Amino acid sequence: MSKVTIRLALAVSLVAPGLLFAQASKPSATKPTAATKPAATTTGQARRAENHARNAAVVAAIPALTKEVESAMRSGGDAPRSESSYFNDNPSSDLPPQAIIVALRRSGGDPRVSSYVKWQLLSGLPKELDEETTKDLIQIYRSSPRPIDRPGIDKRTRGELDRIVRNAKEDEKDRLEEQYQQMIDQTAKDNFYLLKYRDGLFAKLPPSFDALAAGFEDAVVRVDSGIDAGEHTRAVLKALPEWANNAPPEQLKQMSRALEQIQKKKGPEYYNKTSWSESTRKMSWTKASESLSGISQFKEAQEFIDDKIKNPTTPLKLKEEK
Fold first, then answer.
1. Are 318 and 238 in contact (CB under 8 A)?
2. Contacts for 154 with CB less than 8 Å, ≥ 6 apart
3. Do residues 293 and 267 make contact, with C-beta atoms less than 8 angstroms apart?
4. Which of 90, 98, 157, 287 could form a disulfide with 269 if both were Cys (CB 3.0 to 4.6 A apart)?
């Protein structure tokens, strides 16, 4: 998915948070094109990229991890790793961060499989990331596979659900809702490793304006897909103070405006439960939607940022979710 598509998908009711954040991002210096770089430099970079792509530890990890997750998918069970831990169990003395980055940039194949594999490859990154790796990881995060929409959001699944209830009788309510729940459960299962990978990417990023922006954009993507984004959003808010302690005033102001908009985010309506009408003697679907407005930590974060603009020494203590 292109960056343009990602940005368009992040639109909220008033302003797209991606655009809000983009305004405060520091303009990156213009990089010389390949045509203007010395030939020796270009050749050297290509050789290093090729070497990273052939890194023995990564080359061995990818088929092993693919086998793990495909086997689990065929059996209907869980993959053997519940945490991103492959390289903890299989350490390598030759595993530069860029070898991981090259592998994470690869696309194609079943997104469930590739997300599991890439989630595990994240365990090969060092705890402290250099600037280049951090920048690359943020770009990868923003282009990671989008979760599958909850059934009942898109036109296709709504049509399918409408057909299910079209001639249904009142006593079929429980059966129909059970059938719908099976669809929801399957979608959640298909999204499991996509979300694990997204969570893992954010967790690896040192707190920065761009990292927080990507994290909030991810929250909006989840809400737009009909997914509860509460836990992820609270993780992003928890990372906010460390960045804010040394943030420039303009970024703090931009973050304040962005937070004000994002916490109002409400996702599209989806079909939720069946409802029987005595007057029409017909079954229909009630609707619901996901929202970020119920996350209490937004208020503390907003107040903290606003106080930080006025008084740079203000500390932040976010309340634990009850």
1. yes
2. none
3. no
4. 287
pLDDT of residue 321: 59
pLDDT at site 24: 45
Ordered by start, the domain boundaries in the chain are: 3-24+40-310
Between the two ends of the chain, the Cα-to-Cα distance in Å is 37
Run means of pLDDT, 10 residues per run, the chain, 322 residues: 37 44 49 56 60 88 97 92 96 95 95 98 96 97 97 94 93 94 95 98 97 97 97 97 92 95 95 93 95 93 92 65 56
Task: Say whether 271 sits in a helix, a strand or coil.
Answer: strand
Alpha-carbon gap, residue 197 to 123, rounded angstroms: 11
Half-sphere exposure of 172 (CA within 13 A, CB side): 13
The count of C-alpha atoms lying within 13 angstroms of the C-alpha of 71, restricted to the half-sphere facing its C-beta, is: 9
Rounded to the nearest 10°, the torsion over CA 248, 249, 250, 256 is: 110
| Reported pTM | 0.84
Instruction: Convert 32-60 to b/e letters by CB count within 10 Å (16 or more is b).
Output: eeeeeeeeeeeeeeeeeeeebeebebbee
8 A C-beta contact, residue 65 and residue 120: yes
What is the C-alpha separation between 226 and 287, in angstroms, rounded? 12
Cβ–Cβ under 8 Å, residues 136 and 101: yes
* Whole-number pLDDT of residue 311: 82
Cβ contact 231:215 at 8 Å: no
pLDDT at position 312, please? 72
Residue in the structure block whose two tokens are 């970024």 = 251
Give the C-alpha separation, 105 to 139, whole Å: 9
Q: Looking at the chain, how many residues does it have?
A: 322
**CB 241, CB 197: distance < 8 Å:** no
Cα separation, 317 vs 311, whole angstroms: 16
Q: What CA–CA distance (Å, rounded) separates 320 from 296?
A: 9
Residue 52 pLDDT: 73
Q: What is the 8-class DSSP label of residue 218?
A: H
